[in-house]
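Our collaborator T.R. sent over the components below with a one-line note: 'Predict the complex.' Nothing else. No constraints on interfaces, no templates requested, no preferences about which chain binds where. So this is a plain run: every listed entity goes in together, and whatever single assembly comes back becomes the starting point for the next discussion.
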Amino acid sequence: MFKRVSNVANSPTDKICETKCSDPHSGAAGQVVPLAMGKAQKMGEFFNVLSDPTRLRLISLLAEEEFCVCDLAIQLEMTDSAISHQLRALRAARLVSYRKLGRQVFYRLHDQHVVDLYRTVHEHLEE
Amino acid sequence: MFKRVSNVANSPTDKICETKCSDPHSGAAGQVVPLAMGKAQKMGEFFNVLSDPTRLRLISLLAEEEFCVCDLAIQLEMTDSAISHQLRALRAARLVSYRKLGRQVFYRLHDQHVVDLYRTVHEHLEE
DNA sequence: CGAATACATGAACATATCTTCAGGTATTTG
DNA sequence: CAAATACCTGAAGATATGTTCATGTATTCG
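Returned assembly:
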């Protein structure tokens, strides 16, 4: 009993609060397993892309229509470079697509799913 | 024409790419306004809380049932302190509620909305 | 072709973030 | 009451992040 099962990271002095899940390996009833590390990492990275104000403002514009980098920079009153860096992050997360037209690059949201998520949270915070 | 309207932050040498939004103040047709700075900040903070793997794993557990701090620490194989710090962040964001029972504190998700958002994104990343 | 424009990129710097460590409070138990 | 337990908190250190600056590439135009 009270085995901590190689709980390496825990405090030096093992404590005893076995409310309902003392030994995860005892095939008890309420088997609740946390999200796996890898998936938690991926999911965190996804939310992290949405955690920057500049990127959210870009998304708010692209939710309306397509824009080239320069216009985005003008509307947000930031340098082309800063915008380009952030668009790079949005591209890496596959949240935006783009098409080249001459020397301009027009960005748009990759799919409706992003817009839905954005609007859902936007409304949720309007309280 | 070509007024940049106090575009202080932009590059030193003003450039000229007036695709469709040169002067936001000219009451033109496609009036697209970015998300306000303040709201973008708030929204970013919200997503930021969900951008940490540990907090997401906590949410994944609390989506199933109520847990005390110690049990959460055991399941995630982390120190009570680390968990407590993260629960503090989740509390500040009003994502979790808690009730004290003796010397234990049981946490639960504040409302179903969080669970919905978590599950939506979770499924979205399962591709 | 050469200059200007539109965009991308790497390095650097300042700032933010997360875990650990060392304590501190409150409740329970012997 | 004293010790142990459950949890909280501030400071510190390592790491991650975002903007700026300087530069590079590609396209257009004179």
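Summary for T.R.: Confidence is low (pLDDT under 50) at residues 1-14, 21-29 of chain A.
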